[in-house]
Amino acid sequence: MSKELLTRFVQVMQKDPLTNSDLDLVILGNSLGLNLEPLSRLWASQEEAFTVKIREKALKLMETQNQNRIDDTKSFYSGSIDFMVRPHNDHLDYFLLETNGASNRGLSILTKDQQKLVYEGYFGAVRQAIERSEQKYNKILILVGGPINDGLIHEKAILINYLRERIKQKGLKAKVFNIYTYNSNFSCDIAFLIADYKQLSSTLFFENNWVKFKKDNVDVLIGDGIARRIEDPKFNKLIQEDFKKINTIIINPVYLTTDDKALSYLAKHYVNDILEQYNIAKFLFTRAFNEKDLIDKIQLAIQQYNRPFVIKPHAGSGGAGVMPIFPDKIKQNTSKIKRIISQSNKEFFAKFMKNRDPYPYTLQEMADFSLIDWNGGKRAYDLRIYLSQIGRKIIPIGGLARIARGAYVSGIKKEEFVVNLSGYDGKIEVERGLGLSEKASEILNLEIDHFVDIFCNSCIIFKSIVENYKKIINFSKWNQIIGQNTQY
Description:
This protein is of the alpha+beta class. The chain is about 40% helix and about 20% strand. The termini are far apart.
């Protein structure tokens, strides 16, 4: 982030607290030099009472069997999950696209009450740091990271403002710094330090089981996007084997699973029997570790199942590198496989440069998704659901529908099935988003029980990510296509 943007951010946060007027999206955007009027319109499309009805019904259904209860309070704090809706036999089912960790974006389109629920999940980590510091009388450093030139930096302001108010309720004082104003000898009890990933890459290291900013221990690290950029062998080993030995509290430490779509699908696969009552879709998937492995598995999938697949690079976002694979076209010319992979790599590196490795790739059966009428054509869409762990329960908070940019014709063009609102040239196209409401349900041809199913599926999948984490990370049987009837 530029020095100007970070300076403006700290200036905005000097007011304590920010009032409801200050937090109005248009006003907050103006304060930070951002045009948030389109986001404000999307926020206004949310219907709180509609979502509350869905949430309460979902929680009541899951409560009977503790399906969203989780005893581990140090693995998951907040995240999101994406589904497409699929017509299947005489009903609809729900096709998992991906899970997302605590670096997820778009929280400012939720209602004020929903935002509080999401951020209470983040405060769970801050509370843990406070309780630990009370025993040692230490000050606390909370690191908040974000992308370079973050167009949604206002969401960090809303988050910090909420956390700051909760901290005050503990009788503590907090102050906000940027990378230029931070001083190790801060006088407050808790310091928030905001910086972008590039700035942090040269200042973070791992020592004595602490993530350190320069010489200072980081107590809470907000944004698993920061953690994945820490290039330290011991840190990476602990993340895989026993992240609870890391003293820094990471929101969320299970990011290896949410970063990798195949691992997220494996988490779902382990609880398919539970999810069946909520009409989860079963599908084929596997993981490929290099180009030859990916080519071989594409050919195997086409030969065995003769249906469309999609390839997705590791830790991608915004649809970068996602490519469809159609059996008829591949059978006519198998050399097309290499061209598809090459195009995928090109897109991926155009967005992430050489900072990330697109392998291991995920190969996933393509969803036979529902289409809706939108802007004079048939469009694909997905549903993103936000969640937090509050106490010992994973709570579904709310979400939105995201509609594909292009009308669906054959699925060959990416714009026909990639729905990310920020997936094209970095532009955020919020006019393709719909808040959850009665009106949205009519547009999407969904009833309230469909949303209830999706809320339940969301909680149970994240519970599986936490409870089966080591089993998922250590899974090695990727020499086959994992499918509807595979048992492990």
